[in-house]
């Protein structure tokens, strides 16, 4: 097992499958009366979040606590970071406190990689800038496998704001490793030039959502990250929804078995309509639940498994 989880590229097919299989075992804990395992008793997991987060932070906290680890939640707001403390000095402080794992979310791409050089414990990337978010890709893959029974041979369309999406990058890397075909869909302004070739050979790019829908097994809608946009990438929200939003008529173009995903949070009515988000085809709530099991598996294998 790897020491850190910083990128989807860190995972080969065997390691990724091991995590998914372990997550399936962890999922059985949620059905128990006592939802705890003693696997990480005595270990300390630090959630180091420099950006606001709901799902990811709570998911990692729940995962660590279900494994009986001690959890320290660190928010940049109200800490010495607000006084100008550097990431390195914060890392050295955590090191001195004996952190066995640091789960980090940071607005700067590459921050988790730097952090991994400064601490002895394992580092898990919980999202760095517009770069990557590997545990989100793992929970997405787990959800696809749970719903559709396989990953190899699936055709997955990732739709929307690819330019600013760390979720898209990690998913392309991981799904390609596991044998799925990925097509990136969106306006040309939101799909970086040559991103498909740079991430994984065989990844396609298409600018016409309606042309792609009839041939996919999974359609993953991405949030339009307007907070990261300093320029005008499309004429208007209404125009974006008309061209690239998933509504009921478009959902009917999907094959009967196809599922709809979204990493959240959603802009309801923009990239996805409420009737699609709340439909039986939607896995959005499942993805949140599966995230706890997947992150339990990651922490268990990094801290309690065979690399220590």
From TrEMBL:
Gene3D superfamilies: Aspartate/ornithine carbamoyltransferase (3.40.50.1370)
Positions that bind carbamoyl phosphate: 55-56, 105, 133, 136, 264-265
Origin: domain of life: Bacteria
GO molecular function, one term: aspartate carbamoyltransferase activity
Record-annotated Aspartate/ornithine carbamoyltransferase carbamoyl-P binding domain positions: 3-145
Domain Aspartate/ornithine carbamoyltransferase Asp/Orn-binding: start-end pairs: 153-302
Short name of one Pfam family: OTCace_N
Keyword terms: Pyrimidine biosynthesis, Transferase
Catalysis: reaction(s): carbamoyl phosphate + L-aspartate = N-carbamoyl-L-aspartate + phosphate + H(+)
Entry EC no(s): 2.1.3.2
Hydrolase found in the keyword field: no
Enzyme class: transferase
Keyword Transferase on entry: yes
Pathway linked to the protein: Pyrimidine metabolism; UMP biosynthesis via de novo pathway; (S)-dihydroorotate from bicarbonate: step 2/3
PROSITE patterns: CARBAMOYLTRANSFERASE
Binding site for L-aspartate: 83, 166, 223
Subunit structure: Heterododecamer (2C3:3R2) of six catalytic PyrB chains organized as two trimers (C3), and six regulatory PyrI chains organized as three dimers (R2).
Purpose: Catalyzes the condensation of carbamoyl phosphate and aspartate to form carbamoyl aspartate and inorganic phosphate, the committed step in the de novo pyrimidine nucleotide biosynthesis pathway.
Family the entry assigns: Belongs to the aspartate/ornithine carbamoyltransferase superfamily. ATCase family.
Protein name, per record: Aspartate carbamoyltransferase
Species for this entry: Micromonospora solifontis
Name of encoding gene: pyrB
């Amino acid at each position: 097992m790897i020491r850190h989880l910083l990128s989807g590229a860190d995972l080969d097919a065997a390691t990724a499958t091991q995590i998914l299989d372990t997550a399936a075992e962890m999922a059985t804990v949620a059905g128990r009366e006592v939802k705890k395992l003693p696997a990480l008793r005595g270990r300390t997991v630090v959630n180091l979040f420099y950006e606001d987060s709901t799902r990811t932070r709570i998911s990692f906290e729940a995962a660590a606590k279900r494994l009986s680890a001690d959890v320290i939640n660190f928010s940049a707001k109200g800490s010495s970071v607000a006084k100008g403390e550097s990431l390195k000095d914060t890392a050295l402080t955590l090191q001195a406190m004996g952190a066995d794992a640091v789960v980090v979310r940071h607005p700067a791409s590459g921050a988790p990689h730097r952090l991994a050089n400064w601490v002895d414990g394992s580092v898990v990337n919980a999202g760095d800038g517009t770069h990557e978010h590997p545990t989100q890709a793992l929970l997405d893959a787990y959800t696809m496998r749970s719903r559709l029974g396989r990953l190899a041979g699936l055709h997955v369309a990732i739709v929307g704001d690819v330019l600013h999406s760390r979720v898209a990058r990690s998913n392309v890397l991981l799904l390609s490793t596991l044998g799925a075909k990925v097509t990136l869909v969106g306006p040309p302004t939101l799909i970086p030039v040559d991103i498909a070739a740079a991430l994984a050979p065989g990844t396609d790019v298409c600018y016409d959502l309606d042309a792609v829908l009839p041939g996919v097994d999974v359609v993953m809608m991405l949030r339009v990250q307007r907070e990261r946009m300093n320029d005008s990438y499309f004429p208007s929200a209404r125009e974006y929804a008309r061209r690239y939003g998933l509504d009921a008529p478009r959902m009917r173009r999907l094959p009967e078995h196809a599922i709809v995903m979204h990493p959240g949070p959603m802009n309801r009515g923009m990239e996805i309509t409420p009737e699609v988000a709340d439909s039986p085809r939607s896995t959005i709530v499942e993805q949140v639940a599966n995230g706890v099991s997947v992150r339990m598996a990651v922490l268990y294998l990094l801290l309690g498994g065979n690399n220590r």
